[in-house]
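Data availability (excerpt). The following record was deposited with the supplementary files.
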Amino acid sequence: MDNSPDSRWLRITGRLLGVAIIVGSLAMAFYVTRLLYHRPRTDDAVVRVNLVGIAPHVSGPITELDVVDNQEVQEGDLLFVIDPRPFEVDLEGAQANLLLTESGLQATSNAVTSATENVKQLEIEDAFAANHVKRLESLVAGKFVTQDEFEAVQVKASAAQAALAQARQELARQQNLLGQHGDLNAHLKAAEAAVDAAKLNLEYCRVRAPFRGRVTNLNISKGEYAQAGKQVFALVDTRAWYIIANFQETYLEYIKPGMAADIFLLSYPGHRFQGNVEGIGWAVLSPDEETVGVLPSVTPTLNWVRLAQRIPVRIRLEAPDPNKPYRMGMTAVVTLHGGTGDATMPMQKSPP
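Predicted structure:
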């Protein structure tokens, strides 16, 4: 065994180097672990945006198509037109019915006025006949009036009472026909509502963009029959873009709403985008469980290694750069900052 000073020095240096390597490895492992939990990172992320299906409120053939696939539209822009002719006819019919209703109501109102005056006149006659019977009743006992005259007066009083009852019934019938309830006339309101509905359906023939976005999945052409409530195409809501990033459940304790995020898209290498965490998903579908009747059916497993479930985290993206536009489905790599609002640059709001 070589005990020379050079040999001993080499052995000491080797041991020190080995210890340094072990300590350095442990320190690096601790640093990387701490970095992963305080700055969670994932490459399982995609760009997302809300899609709104455009469906007409009325049915009919498309007579005008003013957009093409992938075209950008502004709020209020005309998208397509459904043949308005049937709805124009419906509007004319509703307006004509309104005029007839107003004319009929005027006639019925006049009849109500006449019936009211007739009731008032017959009430006076009935009251006079009843008083006349009372006056003659005391004269019959003294034979100042004959029994025949008294009975004739009674008959007239009964006839006046019957006429009054009939007039009141006629007045009630005319009032029912008029359909008046306070200051509101039911027939008139129904006719006006029909006109409003016809006007609304006619307006629905011109379908406009509800917001700024881009047309997508346009697979129709002029002449296509559009069904009410059935989507014709979709509109991409470009006002707000976000990332759905799937993080392992072991990182969730360190992810909070409001945390700043650095985002890199494979489409634009080397360019950093920014965003903020909006929320963390509360439910994911488990492929191993199902419900049979009222009891859950859980598939038994003998796996020794348990893989951490990935939970979606929604991250609101900054306003898009016109030279680097976002597209739904782009692959992203996301790194979160350990803390809320500590990004190097504040997130910009999307333009209105």
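Summary of structural features: Residues 85-141 form the longest helix (57 residues).
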